[in-house]
Amino acid sequence: MLEFLTRPYMMAFWFGAFTAVSLPLGSMLGIWLKPSARIVAALMAFGAGNLLSALTLELIEPAFVHQGFWPISIGCVLGGLVFVGLNAALENSGGYLRKASTLVAHIKKHKREKMQALLSKLSQVDILRALPPEDMHHIVPSIVERFFKTGDIVFRQGDPATSLYIIENGRVRVQTADTGGDQKTISELEDGQTFGEMALLWNEPRSATVECLEDTMVWEIHAQDFSALTASLPRLRDAVTKLAGERRAGNQAMGLMDAQEWKSIAIKNIHEEDVRPSAAEMSEVMHKEGGGNAALSMWLGIFLDGIPESLVIGASMIGKAVSPALIGGLFFANLPEAMSSGAMMKKQGHSTGKIFWMWMSLCILTGIGALIGNVTFHAVPHHLHAVVEGLAAGAMLAMIAQTMLPEAYEHGGWLVGILTVFGFLSALMFRAMA
Ligand code: CMP
């Protein structure tokens, strides 16, 4: 019995399961201790640094020394591609809910797509096209969509001014009362046209009544946002002043940039901070999308993060004893990952028991993965060992870079750089002492 339990592939299983014990352990610590995001980020950065050097020293260096540059490099590239490909496939089915970093990336992508669609429509708006497209990303966050039914009055002549409106689609009638008190239509406005600028600009009551002639969708910019925007974007102020002046004087249109060119420059100028999700947006997505099948996708996502780990253990044990530095590195890297995911799942409404078993099953699967890795890798011809080791290392490197470090940086800021260095050195120290 003992002989069976200590066979090389069984040892791979034990070591795999051992490194992954930190998963259920970490998830429970995350739920019970509720560590601050900064502490988890700090641990994550340390773990990532530690793993990076353990990988380099224990897996990459020996393969490089024995078989040279190409086998390990080919393996690394393949491993990286496999991880990135599987990760992208999971992204679309809710796997992004597994970590704060993957959730942030997912929301950013969606916000960017929404902004692109909005900019594409805004490229039809006269006063905005008069603006340099590089400045559009300042305006987009201030825009609120509003719907009016046929016959609705958006505002009446003499009302105080609260907003500027741009017609997304629909048609409105602008009318004023003549000296006899009768309503007289002075203009009809449609898609891409602006109204409500005069009163805002000149701090006056509304000069006319605006009524919807059909169901109309508008973009509304509140007075406060309008003041801030015109103060920081003189060209917007000029464009609006020009429009209002022309209207008042009854003059004609402005010279405009081609809509297509305008749109492409505006889209290129969407900045990182324009799509960064707020805490409220993150929790909204977690609550809206965190139930039902999402748990399975999340589990698959975490499973995916565990595949490189199983491969690394399996590969590191081909023909040699396991490296304690690598096992320790993996153990400590898993801990903060599970802490943050465990706490997130709890927030998404999953029970503690369900979370525990979800992670426990992954712990056993990591062991099985390491066992399978070890058996398969043993069957690989000797000259391909470095490729296999590279494959495991590449997948792991991609995982560290794509999910661990961004997650750590999100909450740890500058601390992450220095703790990654300490983590890196800790594996070196371990080796120096061994
Ligand atoms: P404001 O005075 O805030 O409210 C009424 C709006 O009607 C006014 O801003 C303009 O946006 C719009 N408006 C006034 N005169 C004209 C016009 N001649 N042509 C088109 N729109 C107008």
Protein architecture, described:
With 434 residues, this protein is an alpha+beta fold. The chain folds into 2 domains: 2-109 and 278-433, no CATH class; 131-255, Jelly Rolls, CATH 2.60.120.10. The protein contains 18 helices and 8 strands. It has a 4-stranded antiparallel β-sheet. It has a 4-stranded antiparallel β-sheet with strand order 2-7-4-5, with no helix packed on it. The longest helix is centred in the N-terminal third of the chain and has 31 residues, at 37-67. It is elongated. Residues 251-259 have low confidence and may be disordered. The structure holds adenosine-3',5'-cyclic-monophosphate (CMP). Residues 161, 174, 186-187, 189, 195-199, 206-208, 210, 247 line the site of adenosine-3',5'-cyclic-monophosphate (CMP). Adenosine-3',5'-cyclic-monophosphate is lined by residues 161, 174, 186-187, 189, 195-199, 206-208, 210, 247.
